[in-house]
Amino acid sequence: MAPVEDGSLILFDLAASDRLADGESLLIQPDYSLSTNDDVPDADHIARLSSIAIVFPVFSDGRGFTHARRLRTIFGFTGQLIADGHIIPDQADYLFRCGFTHVVVTPDRLGDWQQARRFIRIHFQSMPNSRHSRLDSLSDASSF
Amino acid sequence: MTRITDSKAVTLPVLLTANRLTDGVVLWMAGDTSWTANRNEAVAFTAAGLTVARDQAKADLANQRIISLYEITIDGTGKHSAREQIRAAKGPSIQPLRDQHNQGVSNV
Amino acid sequence: MYKYDNLDQSFLQSRSAQFRDQVQRRLSGALSEDEFKPLRLQNGLYLQLHAYMLRVAIPYGVLSSDQLRGLAGIARDFDRGFGHFTTRQNIQFNWIKLVEAPDILDRLAALDMHAIQTSGNCIRNTTTDPLAGAAHDEIANPLGWCEIIRQWSTLHPEFAFLPRKFKIAVSAGATDRAATGFHDIGLRMVKNRGGEIGFRVLVGGGQGRTPRAAQVLNAFLPTRHLLSYLEAILRVYNAAGRRDNIYKARIKILVEAMGISAFADAVNSEWLGLQSNGLDLPVAEQDRILAHFAPPVLKPVRDGSAEVLARRQADKAFDLWAASNIHPHWHPGYSSASVSLKQIGRPPGDASASEMIAIADLADQFGRGELRITYTQNIIVPHIKLIDLPTFYDGLIKAGLAGAEDALIGDIIACPGLDYCNLANARSLPVADRIFARFDDPSRRHEIGPLRLNISGCINACAHHHAADIGVLGVNKKGVEHFQITLGGKAGEAAQIGRILGPSFAEEDVPDAIETIINIYLGARHEGEIFAACLDRLGIAPFKEALYGTG
C-alpha cells in the first residue's frame, strides 16, 4: 500500500489537525484493517497490533465509531487508529473523540480537514481523550 | 419508460422537476432546458430532446443549482396527480393561518 | 427551566458557525448533496414539497415566553407568519430558504434555542409529559432528567450516524402522558420498595410501517446510572441495527429479531464495560442540572375554586372549556391550562405569530412565563392560580384561542400531510377540517367525551394514528387519496396498536364513517363509559358491521 503521501492520499493527524510533519514515518498500511461491517478481532490479536485501520464504506455508516470506542475502552488498544474510506471533514470532532488518531484524506480536502475541529470545542460527554467541558477535572479513565 | 408498438420503441413524454438548492422552490425544466418556477412553462420531453434535457439536469445537479431531481412520466394514469397538483400550486390546499400584525409586538 | 450560561451559549454559537461554514461549502460544491444532507438534517433542515422546512428544538416541550415571542419573530422575518407544533414537542417552519438558515440559527442561538439533532439518524428531542413539574400525580419531576439526556446526546460522537432516528421519552406521572410505550426508549420514573427513585426502562416501541409497543428492558435502573445504561443500549443498536433497509432499521426491529432476553443480555454485557468510563455524571453536575427544575416557590393564594365554579355556572362556554382544559396541580390553589390549537379552518397544531405572542403574554400575566408544547400539538400554560382562570380564559377569547377542548374529538392530532410533506400519500389537513366541521358543536363534543382521533398522511405515522382511539391513515388508491380507519390504539401505560376496520374511504365519506362509529358508541355505552372502555368491552365487530355491513 501507499507510503505516507503518494500524491493521492494524505495521512491526517486528528490531534494536530494537520497532515503529518515531514519526516514522520507512518505508513498508511496498518497492521490490521477492518470494515465497519466486520467484527473487531479478538483481544489476543488486538494486543499484538500497533495500528488498526477502520474502513468506512460510506460516511453515514456509524459502526466505525463504535468499533473505535470498543477498541479503546474495552480492549484497551493504545496504538494508531486510522479512519479510511469515505469520510467527510465534518466528522473530525466525532472521529477524534471516539479515539481515532489519523484519517486518510485526499489533497483537495486537506484544507477542510485542517479547519474542521476548530468549530466545536465544547463537549458534553466525557471521553478518554476529551473532557466534558463543564467538569472541572478529567475522569479517571486513562488516556492513550 | 418505453412501450414497443409496431416494433418501434415509443418514449412517453417526461417532465423534469427539481427544487432549487438555495431556497427549495419547486422548478420545472422549460423548453430551452432552463429551470422555471412557473408550471405552465414546463415542457414534456421525448426522444432526443429528453437526452439533452437529462444531460443538462445532471449538470445542474453537479453545479449546485438544483437538488431532488426526478421525472414525471406523462402516461395518463394520474398516479402522482394529487402530489404534483400541490407542488404546482406552490402551497397547501388549505388556507394557512394568517398573521395579524396589529396584535402584539415581537420583542426580537 | 434550564438557564444557559456562557458555556452553553458559546456552544450554540459555535454550532451555528459550523453550519454557516457547511452551507457555504455546499453552495460552492465542496460538499455534495449526499454529504451535506445528514449535516443539514442534524440542524433540523428538511427539504419538503414547497421549500425547506426547519424543525426547531423545544427541548422536552418547555419554553419561556421570551422564546415563544422569539419564534414568532422568526416566523415573521423568515417564514410566512406562522409555525406548526409537532407530536415531538418541537416547532416547524415550512417556508425556509437554505441561504437564510444560518441567520436563523444565529437568531435561535441568541434565544438559547437551536435545531440540533431534530432530524437525521441521531438521538432526537427527548419528550415528556407537558404537565411535568406541575402535575399532581408525579413521582418526581422528569424535566431535569430530560435535560441531562439532552446534554449527553448532543453531538455525542459515537451516535451521530445511527442506523436510523432515535427517540426517547420520559414519564413520571401516575398516567403516562408521554407515550413512552411508543418510543425507541421509554423511561418511566418509578420507586422501588426501598423508596429509591429509578427508571423502568422500555425499549423497542414505535409507530410507522411496523408499529410496536415497547417492552420492559430493565424494571428498575437507579437514576445515577442513567447515562451509562443509555449508552449501552445505543451502542448495541449502533453496532447491530440493520443498515440495509430503512424500513427495518429502527431498534424495534432489532429487539424483535434478537428477542428481548438476548437484547437485554447484550445491553448488560456492554454496560458492564461502560460503568467505569466516567459517563455517568458526577453527583455535583447532576444536581446542578436538576436544581434548575426545583418546584417553583408559589405564592400562597386563597382557594379559587369558588370563583371558577361561579363562572362555570354562569357561562356555558367557560363551563365546557373548564371541563376539559384545566389540569390539576400539585398545589391546591393552582392549575395548568391548555390552549388548544385546534379549530375549524386551522391546521391542527398551527399558530400564527400574533397568536404565539398573545399566548406568551398570557403566560407572563397569569403563569410564570413558562409554556409547554404537548404531544397532542397544543400549548399548556402551567402554574396558573385557580382564581385567575376566568380572566385567563377571557384573554384566550380575546386572542381567538378558545378553540376546541383538550382530549375530546375536536382535539385532532394531524401531521402536515401531502400539503407540505414529501413523504405523504394523502392530505391530512382537509380531512381534519371536515371531521371538525362535522363535530362543530362543543356540547356534542363534551357529550361524546374523551376521544383521541389522529390523522396520518402516510404509513410513517407521524400523527401516531396507531395509538389513537380512532386512527385515520391516508393511502394512495390509484392516484386518489383514500383513508383507512383504525380503532383501539392506546398511548398510555398499556400501549396498544389500533386495528384496521376495513377498506378505505374517499375523503368526503370520512366524516360519515366517523359519525357512524360515534353513534354506535353513544348507543351502546354504559353510564360514564368513555370511548376506549366501550371499545374494549364491545370489540371492533359492531363498528365494522355498522361501516361495512355483514361481510
Please name the defining characteristics of this protein.
heterotrimer, A: 144 residues, six-stranded mixed β-sheet, 21% helix, disordered C terminus, C: 551 residues, Sulfite Reductase Hemoprotein, domain 1, 3 domains
> What is the second-level CATH architecture of the largest domain in chain C?
Alpha-Beta Complex
The radius of gyration computed from the alpha-carbon positions of chain C, rounded to a whole number of angstroms, is: 23 Å
What is the C-alpha radius of gyration of chain B, as a whole number of Å? 18 Å
| Global geometry of chain B | globular
Largest sheet of chain B: 4 strands, antiparallel
Could you give a short account of the major beta sheet of chain C? Answer: 6 strands, mixed
Oligomer: heterotrimer
Count of folded domains of chain C? 3
The number of helical segments of chain B is: 2
The CATH topology name of the largest domain in chain C reads: Sulfite Reductase Hemoprotein, domain 2
Residue ranges of chain B: pLDDT <50 for 5 or more in a row? 1-8, 103-108
* Helix fraction of chain C by DSSP (H/I, runs of at least 4): 25-40%
Cα-to-Cα separation, first versus last residue of chain B = 53 Å
What best-fitting shape of chain C do the alpha-carbon axes yield?
A: globular
Nearest-integer average pLDDT of chain B: 83
Approximately how much beta-strand content do the residues of chain B carry?
25-35%
Q: Structural class of the secondary elements of chain B?
A: alpha+beta
Poorly predicted segments of chain C: none
Mean pLDDT of chain C: 96
Question: Can I get a quick summary?
Answer:
The complex is a heterotrimer of chains A (144), B (108) and C (551). With 144 residues, chain A is of the alpha/beta class.
Textual characterization of the structure:
The complex is a heterotrimer of chains A (144), B (108) and C (551). Chain A is built from four helices and six strands. Chain A has 144 residues and is of the alpha/beta class. Chain A has one domain (1-19, 28-144). In chain A, strands 2-1-6-5-4-3 form a six-stranded mixed sheet, with helices on one face. Mean pLDDT of chain A is 86; it is low at 137-144. By secondary structure, chain B is an alpha+beta fold. Chain B has one domain (2-89). In chain B, 23% of the residues lie in helices and 27% in strands. In chain B, the strands form two sheets. Chain B has a four-stranded antiparallel sheet with strand order 5-4-3-6, covered by helices on one side. Chain C is α+β, with helices and mostly antiparallel strands. Chain C has 18 helices and 21 strands. The longest helix of chain C is centred in the N-terminal third of the chain and has 23 residues, at 6-28. The model of chain C has no long low-confidence stretch (mean pLDDT 96). Chains in contact: A-C, B-C. The interface between B and C is large, with 40 and 55 residues.
